[in-house]
């Protein structure tokens, strides 16, 4: 026996349900980039941490800067009901995306976290945008 096999594996049904649940609340940098390159994302990408200056220095192309502390029912009313929000933060060491996702879900809004955040985006060697505007990810 090893540390890997000390605890028996879950049944295929339990494993399937677990991974389906995880994928229902998260996405990754590669999937977001592929969708952005397609030109018509079916979600709103939110950069939910940091100062406006940090956002201007570097953000995922297409992302709007909306810090999690500023998420409110009034603020989110500018989007149609049912809009999917994908949120990201600095990376695995940051819980800003979790805070934003909790707020959005508590407001009844569909949400997924882009796992990895800025760190994951950089690790995948994907290009960043800079400036006050969201920018575009080119194909």
Automatic annotation (TrEMBL):
- CDD domains reported in the protein's UniProt record: RHOD_PspE2
Which InterPro entries would you find in this protein's record? GlpE_sulfurtransferase, Rhodanese-like_dom, Rhodanese-like_dom_sf, Thiosulphate_STrfase_CS
Against PROSITE patterns, the record matches this protein to:
RHODANESE_1, RHODANESE_3
- Residue ranges crossing the lipid bilayer per the database entry: none
Instruction: Enumerate the spans annotated as Rhodanese domain.
Output: 39-130
> Which molecular function GO terms apply here?
thiosulfate-cyanide sulfurtransferase activity
Question: What protein does this entry describe?
Answer: Rhodanese-like domain-containing protein
Q: Which species does the entry assign this protein to? A: Mesorhizobium huakuii
């Amino acid at each position: 026996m090893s540390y890997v096999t000390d605890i028996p594996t879950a049944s295929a049904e339990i494993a399937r349900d677990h991974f389906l649940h995880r994928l229902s609340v998260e996405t990754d940098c590669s999937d977001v980039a592929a969708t952005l390159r397609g030109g018509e994302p079916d979600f709103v990408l939110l950069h939910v941490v940091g100062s406006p200056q940090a956002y201007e220095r570097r953000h995922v192309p297409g992302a709007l800067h909306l810090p999690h502390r500023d998420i409110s029912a009034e603020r989110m009313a500018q989007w149609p009901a049912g809009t999917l929000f994908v949120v990201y933060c600095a990376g695995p060491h940051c819980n800003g995306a979790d805070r934003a996702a909790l707020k959005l879900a508590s407001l009844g809004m569909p949400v997924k976290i882009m796992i990895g955040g800025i760190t994951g985006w950089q690790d995948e060697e994907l290009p960043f945008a800079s400036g006050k505007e969201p920018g575009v990810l080119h194909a």
